[in-house]
Design a protein that fits this description.
alpha+beta, three-stranded antiparallel β-sheet, 38% helix, globular
Length: 117
């Protein structure tokens, strides 16, 4: 392979892997019944300031809660997974379909980790 073509392939590979890495944000479960991303931690009651402080640090919790009051029972993680405490479900996204119902497929893995179902 000539050097110019090799450079082009390497640049393409770097661009694709960088874009892919930006979209891929895995959730972690640092303890049973808790899910965290890089911004927040939640349990089956919703977004939790004490859990966010414990697992992500006080600065993350202060930043998260700085806007004031907000609904702690419906939230999206950085990877797009949406969880609703009232439904006790996590879905692949938060969007609605034409019928006015949530259209995201139920994410069984994160529903089980967060709600034990």
């Amino acid at each position: 392979m000539n050097p110019a073509r090799l450079c082009w392939h390497l640049a393409l590979l770097l661009a694709v892997s960088t874009a892919h890495a930006g979209r891929q944000t895995t959730l972690r479960s640092p303890e049973p019944g808790v899910l965290c991303d890089r911004h927040l931690c939640a349990n089956d009651q919703g977004i939790s300031r004490p859990l966010t402080e414990k697992h992500l640090g006080p600065q993350a919790a202060t930043k998260l809660f700085s806007p004031g009051d907000f609904d702690l029972t419906e939230f999206s993680f950085a990877n797009g997974v949406f969880c609703d405490v009232k439904e006790r479900l996590c879905r692949n996204h938060r969007y609605y379909g034409a019928d006015g119902q949530r259209s995201g497929a139920v994410n069984k893995k994160y529903t089980r980790l967060l709600f034990g179902q």
